[in-house]
Amino acid sequence: MIALFSQETIDFLVENRLQNDKAWFGVHKEQYHEFVIAPLISLADELSSVLLDIDDKLICSPKVGGSVSRIWRDTRFSKDKSLFRDIMWCMFVREKNTGLPEFFFVISPDSFLYGCGYYSAGTASMESIRRLILSGDKDFNTALSTYENQEIFQLEGDLYKKSRYPDMPEHLRNWLDRKTICFLRKSTDFDLLYSDELSATVAEGYKILAPIYNFLIKAEENIKN
What we know:
Elements: H1 7-19, H2 22-27, H3 29-54, E1 88-92, E2 102-107, E3 112-117, H4 123-134, H5 138-148, E4 154-156, H6 170-176, E5 182-187, H7 190-193, H8 198-224
Antiparallel strand pairs: 1-2, 2-3, 3-5, 4-5
Helix pairs in contact: 1-3, 3-8, 4-8, 5-8
């Protein structure tokens, strides 16, 4: 194993966003490929076997436009008209652009994060999750136990201002009252980011999250039935 990311990765992301200039990017395209794209492709490739063991339907495509994000921003519907992102990621999902739960790794100038869940869950997804929780579903109980018996990942997602289930126990309301849901570890441990232990650490995290991911997929499959 070799280190994938370096200080040059972060430096490029910051400077490229500050310059916000096609000509500057063109001159520095070699650094972009060496310090940003090549590490992300390698990481996606190194994680693929673990991910496919969790779900063999996941798309694990170690290339830009596959599992690796593009640095060019789509500014058509955004107030922010800057040309380039300073955040890049790997995404592993069954079908792109369908709102399904995914595994992810994200790198930014001040931190990195990884985990699984929804980028933005649809109403049908959250209602299906709630139905399973309220029914005492065994796969939810496994997911809940998995979450409560680890200290790496945090349950995230916007909460309703007022609980929709005030009579339920707090540990269940923590799931039930979410508008969307994901489980992530955010870190500023750049020593880890720049080390040869990164991919193994992320892979072990994905393994921990597997029962939670399986529960989310069950909720999605129940929508279709």
